[in-house]
């Protein structure tokens, strides 16, 4: 006999409910796929500033964004698509909202805003469901591809900072040494003009 796990049963139930709703409303297959708010465990994403984080769905229906640098925020999306702060750093909600909605196949018709008095990200306008193709195209910068690009950029910046020059000295230290030698009147590769300008 085939046994279905609880997680699989929840996914099937969500898919069935979305299918029934879409059939009743006359949705196409693509609309059905995009509007399905599917179950997931962890999704690797980046926020508007390119900071990598992992979005995790909790058992109680809340979601938690855990950043690579240790910051995190737990929130709950309500029936009006507002993101209500539960714990962590509430201010992170504004930076992750657009990618979050696109991940769930929705695009806001107007930009929302973070309300520090209520501790929530307020969604404005209507949420427009995206087709699977539209969702994949718009979500790409926020998903795994965006995360990989963000890591590549930060890796290149680190490599540039630590890359030794011809003397085997790190760039920052060598620049400091050159400034010191110019002040003392030593030649620095600019010929006698360098010594003259230092002496004056």
Give a concise summary:
The chain has seven helices and nine strands; from the N terminus they run ααβββββαββββαααα. It has helices at residues 6-25, 29-35, 93-103, 132-139, 144-162, 171-183, 192-199, and strands at residues 42-46, 52-57, 63-67, 72-77, 83-88, 106-108, 113-115, 120-122, 127-129.
How many domains, in number, for the residues? 2
Query: How many helical stretches?
Result: 7
- Give helix and strand order, one letter per element, not per position: HHEEEEEHEEEEHHHH
The main sheet comes to: 7 strands, antiparallel
Determine the mean pLDDT.
Answer: 73
Question: What is the number of E strands?
Answer: 9
Residue stretches low in confidence (pLDDT < 50, at least 5 long) are 7-27, 29-36, 160-200
- The Cα radius of gyration reads 26 Å
N-to-C terminal Cα separation, in Å?
A: 92 Å
General description of the model:
This protein is an alpha+beta fold and 200 residues long. The protein has two domains: 1-39; 40-153, no CATH class. 43% of the residues lie in helices and 20% in strands. It contains seven helices and nine strands. It has helices at residues 6-25, 29-35, 93-103, 132-139, 144-162, 171-183, 192-199; strands at 42-46, 52-57, 63-67, 72-77, 83-88, 106-108, 113-115, 120-122, 127-129. The strands form two sheets. The chain has a seven-stranded antiparallel sheet with strand order 1-2-3-4-5-8-7. A two-stranded antiparallel ribbon has the order 6-9. A hairpin with a 5-residue loop joins strand 1 (42-46) and strand 2. The radius of gyration is 26 Å and the shape is globular.
């Amino acid at each position: 006999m085939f046994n279905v796990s609880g997680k699989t049963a929840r996914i099937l139930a969500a898919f069935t409910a979305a299918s029934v709703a879409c059939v009743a409303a006359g949705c196409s297959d693509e609309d059905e796929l995009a509007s399905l708010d599917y179950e997931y465990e962890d999704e690797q994403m980046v926020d508007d500033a390119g900071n990598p984080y992992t979005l995790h769905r909790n058992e109680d229906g809340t979601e938690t964004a855990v950043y690579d640098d240790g910051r995190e925020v737990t929130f709950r999306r309500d029936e009006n698509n507002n993101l209500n702060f539960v714990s962590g750093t509430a201010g992170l909600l504004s930076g992750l909202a657009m990618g979050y909605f696109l991940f769930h196949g929705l695009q806001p018709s107007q930009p929302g805003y973070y309300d520090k008095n209520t501790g929530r990200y307020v969604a404005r306008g209507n949420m427009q469901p995206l087709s699977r193709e539209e969702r994949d195209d718009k979500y790409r910068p926020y998903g795994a591809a965006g995360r990989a690009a963000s890591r590549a950029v930060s890796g290149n910046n680190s490599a540039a900072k630590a890359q030794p020059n011809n003397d085997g000295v790190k760039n920052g230290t060598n620049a400091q040494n050159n400034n010191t030698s110019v002040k003392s009147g030593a030649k620095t590769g600019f010929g006698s003009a360098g010594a003259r300008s230092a002496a004056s």
